[in-house]
Amino acid sequence: MSRKTNVMTLQSGHKAVAAGAVHVPAPGEGKRGEQGYLGYLLRQAHAAVRLTMERTLADLGVTSPQFAVLTMLNAYPGLSGADVARLTFLTPQTVGVIIRNLERDGAIAMTPHPVHGRIQQWTLTPRGATLLKACRQRVLELEKRLARNLDSKAETTIRRWLAGIAADLQED
User: Fold this and answer.
1) pTM for this one?
2) CA end-to-end span of the chain, whole Å?
3) Measured between alpha carbons, how far is 1 from 129 in angstroms, rounded to an integer?
4) Stretch 137-159: mean pLDDT, rounded?
5) How far lies 92's CA from each of 21, 50, 68, 87, in Å?
6) Residue 73: enclosing H or E segment and its boundaries?
7) pLDDT tens digits, residue range 97-137?
8) SS3 state of residue 120
9) How many helices (H) and strands (E) does the chain have?
10) Residue 119 in contact with residue 110, Cβ under 8 Å?
């Protein structure tokens, strides 16, 4: 349950919290900062990245989950919807909607599996590849922003740490 804070702007332009109101810390403060739980901090960072990505891709008509699906189909052509769901951390139902919309827009195409005819395999179309390229240019700017205060050694360490968490907790 969230609480609204009663914030007043003083004549000096400074903001003050009204008496009796609870101060909700901004990202980076208190438990939302270095004192916070790692799991919470990862979730907070993910939410900030996702919101920024949504805003970055909005005028292209692409959502963050659609971008993830396009990215995985580019990296691994011929995936099934179930494979895409696992790789993008989305539900099969959500992926089904995304796939239908991307197919309708001509960004991806289905081909039947050569052995298991009931399995549908998805690949990018030329239109999908062009759309992904436009998205990727924008997302690369966000990636640069994420790593702007890191040297290459620190970035490599963080990438290893994040990938290691996923690999380690995969078995749970």
Assistant:
1) 0.79
2) 29
3) 42
4) 96
5) 43, 20, 14, 11
6) helix 64-75
7) 999 999 999 999 998 877 776 778 999 999 999 999 999 99
8) strand
9) 6, 4
10) no
